[in-house]
From TrEMBL:
<dbReference type="InterPro" id="IPR014710">
    <property type="entry name" value="RmlC-like_jellyroll"/>
</dbReference>
<keyword id="KW-0808">Transferase</keyword>
<dbReference type="InterPro" id="IPR000595">
    <property type="entry name" value="cNMP-bd_dom"/>
</dbReference>
<dbReference type="InterPro" id="IPR018490">
    <property type="entry name" value="cNMP-bd_dom_sf"/>
</dbReference>
<keyword id="KW-0418">Kinase</keyword>
<protein>
    <submittedName>
        <fullName>cAMP-binding domain of CRP or a regulatory subunit of cAMP-dependent protein kinases</fullName>
    </submittedName>
</protein>
<feature type="domain" description="Cyclic nucleotide-binding">
    <location>
        <begin position="33"/>
        <end position="117"/>
    </location>
</feature>
<dbReference type="Pfam" id="PF00027">
    <property type="entry name" value="cNMP_binding"/>
</dbReference>
<dbReference type="GO" id="GO:0016301">
    <property type="term" value="F:kinase activity"/>
</dbReference>
Length: 197
């Protein structure tokens, strides 16, 4: 096992147990990719054919609407995964962009290699099933928060549950992720910072 794959293997071990040989075989399918700040990992209109594990850095997934307004959908930092599951599964062009907010390093595996490996090592399927379930739960809860929480409550929830993101991501991106205008977000941000701990 080489150093670039230590993180991804530890991540896999949370939900599954591969044999040492299976881990070794899995590593042969992985590629390390470095992305500079502001460089795109995935662009709208391209087909996403990889799953990405973040070794270091911070990435942002967003959609650009017809008016040219960016809507942030997801962020990924160290020890998180990112991709476009829809594009990977359907093999249709993505409507999303994934861009590096910082110099980053990801470990990638192609969809074809991942599918083939799950046939050889069914335990890996458990990992991705649990991961996708958790992702769906998180998205469901985010949708509910958008419905029943006001902007300030959403921001407090974000800061409380993702302090590492709140300190690394530019406020304009946090604002659109929370469904807020930058102006309204600035007002909320100042108010929240003045609140007692």
């Amino acid at each position: 096992m080489t150093a670039p794959f230590a993180g991804i293997l530890a991540n896999l071990r949370r939900y599954t147990s591969l044999t040492p040989k299976e881990e070794e075989d899995f590593c042969t399918l992985l590629t390390v990719r470095k992305i500079r700040r502001r460089e795109f990992l995935l662009r709208e209109g391209h087909i996403c054919d990889c799953e990405y594990y973040v070794n270091s850095g911070c990435l942002r997934t967003y959609h650009l609407d017809p008016k040219g307004i960016e809507h942030n959908l997801y962020f990924a930092i160290e020890d998180w995964w990112t991709s476009d599951l829809y594009s990977r599964t359907t093999r249709e062009p993505t409507r999303c962009n994934i861009v590096a907010l910082e110099d980053s390093e990801v470990v990638q595996i192609t969809q074809d290699d991942l599918e083939a490996f799950t046939l050889r090592a069914p335990a890996i399927e458990r990992f991705f099933r649990i991961s996708y379930q958790q992702s769906l739960i998180n998205q469901h809860m985010r949708n509910l928060r958008m419905l029943y929480m006001n902007g300030q409550e959403r921001y407090i929830h974000f800061r409380t549950n993702f302090p590492e993101l709140a300190n690394r991501i530019p406020q304009k991106h946090v604002a659109t992720f929370l469904g807020l205008t930058p102006e309204f977000f600035n007002t909320i941000h100042a108010k929240v910072l003045r609140m007692p701990e």
